[in-house]
């Protein structure tokens, strides 16, 4: 049995369904992220696990124990909030010690565990400082130490890095993962940042409209998205509407004058489909040497990459190229575009692609 199990978990606010039939199994020591845009139900799901929101329907089990209706303070979970929620009048060590005091932990043991927790997040030298004297990253570490010091069965993280600047946020992503692996605490994190979820998680739960639309390893979510939404929310994607055609021994997708071999099974001839290609999978080649020719409409310098908007016979394509020293293309310049068959994904056409 999984360590944390959600079965059919549903939450209504009046007539509004915030979370619908969430089924999720989290193994002991696993790091799982709930990923999605604002309003998708990810935070509500976390709050139901924490006990801050009542479950309308369904069941939550922790290590075989039904905690669906248990009070939040009886679940023993560690929680790091988006705002960190540190006590401003307490020092760092007192903030970290607070949960142990509430659990009547003996003073000597408490001091040792606080010292170990601060060592884990590299804040030993700041034990006597107050939160106002710390940087954003340091306050985040204090909140993490406070959650971990009670040795919780599950650590819940609610957008823990969202208040940090971009560079520090990236650094903290990897530090958070290193700490979690060292401690081995089962962790569930809520985030709207796909790069954050992909970089630190064992598995990602992509949510849309209150439902889990794909639960998979980060690589699989990125390389094999199951829906149009996942294709565009998790990374960038070129979307081309086409139809399945059958040549007898091979099916392919026809998009205007372009024909691409169909590798996915289960599509009938004539079916409307969506051909998706990640921008970084496209290769710029000599004119006439690729599948398509295109003209550069716009270019953007991203530091390690160049992003090109290309006008082609099948519509606009976005191309990402490494900044590896090759001469950049100029706006208005024509070039060939190619890609391996293995880099295309085909999805059932759920609705017309927005212009």
What is the gist of this entry?
The chain is built from eight helices and 20 strands.
Ordered list of secondary-structure elements with their pairings:
Blueprint (H helix, E strand, L loop, with lengths): L3 E10 L2 E11 L4 E5 L6 H9 L6 E6 L2 E2 L11 E3 L11 H11 L4 H14 L15 H13 L5 E5 L7 H18 L2 E6 L2 H7 L2 E6 L2 E6 L1 H6 L4 H6 L4 E9 L4 E5 L2 E4 L10 E6 L5 E3 L6 E10 L3 E8 L2 E8 L11 E5 L5 E5 L7
Parallel strand pairs: 3-8, 3-9, 6-7, 7-8
Antiparallel strand pairs: 1-2, 1-4, 4-5, 9-10, 11-12, 11-14, 12-13, 14-20, 15-19, 16-17, 16-19, 17-18
Helix pairs in contact: 2-3, 2-4, 3-4
Count of extended strands: 20
Number of helices: 8
Query: What level of helicity do the residues show?
Result: 10-25%
The CATH superfamily of the largest domain turns out to be P-loop containing nucleotide triphosphate hydrolases
Assigned CATH architecture of the largest domain:
3-Layer(aba) Sandwich
Q: How many discrete domains?
A: 2
CATH fold group of the largest domain: Rossmann fold
Assembly annotation: single chain
């Amino acid at each position: 049995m999984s360590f944390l199990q959600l079965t059919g978990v549903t939450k209504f606010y009046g007539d509004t369904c915030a979370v619908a039939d969430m089924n999720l199994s989290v193994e002991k020591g696993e790091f799982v992220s709930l990923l999605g845009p604002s309003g998708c139900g990810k935070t509500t799901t976390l709050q139901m696990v924490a006990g801050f929101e009542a479950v309308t329907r369904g069941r939550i089990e922790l290590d075989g124990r039904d905690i669906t209706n248990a009070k939040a303070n009886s679940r023993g979970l560690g929680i790091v909030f988006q705002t960190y929620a540190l006590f401003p009048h307490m020092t760092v060590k007192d903030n970290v010690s607070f949960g142990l005091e509430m659990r009547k932990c003996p003073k000597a043991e408490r001091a040792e565990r606080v010292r170990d927790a601060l060592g884990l997040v590299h804040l030993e030298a700041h034990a006597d400082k107050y939160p106002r004297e710390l940087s954003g990253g340091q306050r985040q570490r204090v909140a993490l130490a406070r959650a971990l010091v009670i040795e919780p069965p599950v650590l819940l993280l609610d957008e823990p890095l969202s208040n940090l600047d971009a560079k520090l946020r990236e650094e903290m992503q990897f530090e958070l993962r290193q700490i979690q692996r060292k401690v081995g605490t089962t962790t569930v994190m809520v985030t709207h940042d796909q790069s954050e979820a992909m970089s630190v998680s064992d598995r990602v739960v992509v949510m849309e409209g209150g439902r889990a639309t794909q639960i998979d390893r980060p690589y699989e979510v990125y390389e094999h998205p199951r829906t149009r939404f996942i294709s565009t929310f998790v990374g960038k994607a070129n979307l081309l509407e086409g139809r399945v055609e059958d040549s007898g021994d091979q099916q392919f997708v026809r998009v205007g004058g372009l024909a691409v071999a169909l590798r996915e099974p289960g599509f009938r001839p004539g079916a409307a489909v969506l051909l998706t290609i990640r921008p970084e999978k496209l290769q710029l080649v000599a004119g006439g040497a690729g599948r398509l020719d295109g003209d550069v409409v716009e270019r953007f310098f991203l530091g390690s990459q160049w992003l090109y908007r290309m006008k082609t016979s099948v519509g606009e394509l976005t191309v990402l190229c490494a900044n590896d020293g090759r001469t950049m293309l100029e706006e208005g310049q024509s070039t060939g575009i190619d890609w391996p068959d293995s880099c295309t994904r085909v999805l059932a056409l759920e609705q017309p692609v927005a212009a």
